[in-house]
């Protein structure tokens, strides 16, 4: 998978050199290119923003640097990339979204700042990209970089070979609609607190059943919205 990120803060993406994502890059499973939007400006101050038409607080990102950056990036490959623009008003980024994006060969991320990117860029970009605006959640960040770090990690970890033990991807939170079960390790008693006896039993059937029950109980307690609606009463 090829990933491109366009940002005015390239150093924000440095964490993608670390840990499993960094290793996947070194192993050639991921190809990542980070581009500084200011490299696509032509004035002395490398200006990327201007005042909003219609007034209001803050600044808006100018369309031309984005057009030049996205044109350059699209020209780096011979297929039609997916352009992901993080935004508080986007469709929700969820585990199914991550799974779908992990099937794509080329993702390009546009990190906005200020009050956002001139709206005409989204329409202009459809000539060369499949454009998606995605939100991490119902809260407002200062820019897209943090969202891109989260999305890249959520997508990249699903790629074959990135996570050493692919089995660990199966019973994770949200993978099948339920939250994950509680986990324990040595010592068996810590601060007077014991590991549940079933986990020490060696009875793999009982352990699997207990873990499933724990996932349902935890989901009911913390995220009942994830549970399927109860079936209608039989006589309805
Ligand atoms: N746009 C915008 C905007 C609109 C109003 C107030 C502040 C901003 C700041 N901002 C600029 C770029 C940008 C990118 C992504 C998010 C973002 C994503 C999630 N899930 N929350 N916030 C915010 C971003």
TrEMBL record:
Segments forming domain tRNA methyltransferase TRMD/TRM10-type: 1-227
Q: Which Gene3D superfamilies match?
A: 3.40.1280.10, tRNA(m1g37)methyltransferase, domain 2
Recorded GO molecular functions are: tRNA (guanine(37)-N1)-methyltransferase activity
A UniProt-annotated Pfam family: tRNA_m1G_MT
Identification of the protein by name:
tRNA (guanine-N(1)-)-methyltransferase
Location in the cell reads: Cytoplasm
Write out the transmembrane intervals: none
Subunit and interaction comment:
Homodimer.
């Amino acid at each position: 998978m090829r990933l491109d990120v366009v940002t005015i803060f390239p150093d924000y993406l440095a964490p993608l050199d670390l840990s499993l994502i960094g290793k996947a890059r070194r192993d050639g499973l991921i190809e990542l290119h980070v581009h500084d939007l200011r490299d696509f400006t032509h004035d002395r101050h490398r200006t990327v923003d201007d005042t909003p038409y219609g007034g209001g607080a803050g600044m808006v990102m100018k369309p031309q640097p984005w057009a030049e950056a996205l044109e350059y990036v699209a020209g780096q490959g011979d297929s039609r990339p997916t352009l992901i623009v993080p935004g508080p008003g986007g469709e929700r980024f969820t585990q199914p979204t991550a799974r779908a994006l992990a099937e794509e060969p080329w993702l390009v991320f546009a990190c906005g700042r200020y009050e956002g990117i001139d709206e005409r860029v989204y329409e202009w970009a459809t000539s060369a990209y499949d454009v998606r605006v995605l939100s991490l959640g119902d809260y407002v960040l200062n820019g897209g970089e943090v969202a891109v770090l989260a999305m890249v990690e959520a997508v990249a970890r699903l790629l074959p070979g990135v996570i050493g033990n692919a089995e660990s991807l199966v019973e994770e939170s949200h993978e099948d609609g339920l939250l994950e079960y509680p986990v324990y390790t040595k010592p068996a008693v810590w601060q007077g607190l014991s590991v549940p006896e079933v986990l020490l039993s060696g009875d793999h059937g009982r352990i699997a059943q207990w873990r499933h029950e724990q996932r349902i109980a935890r989901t009911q307690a913390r995220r009942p919205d994830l549970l399927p609606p109860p079936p209608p009463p039989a006589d309805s």
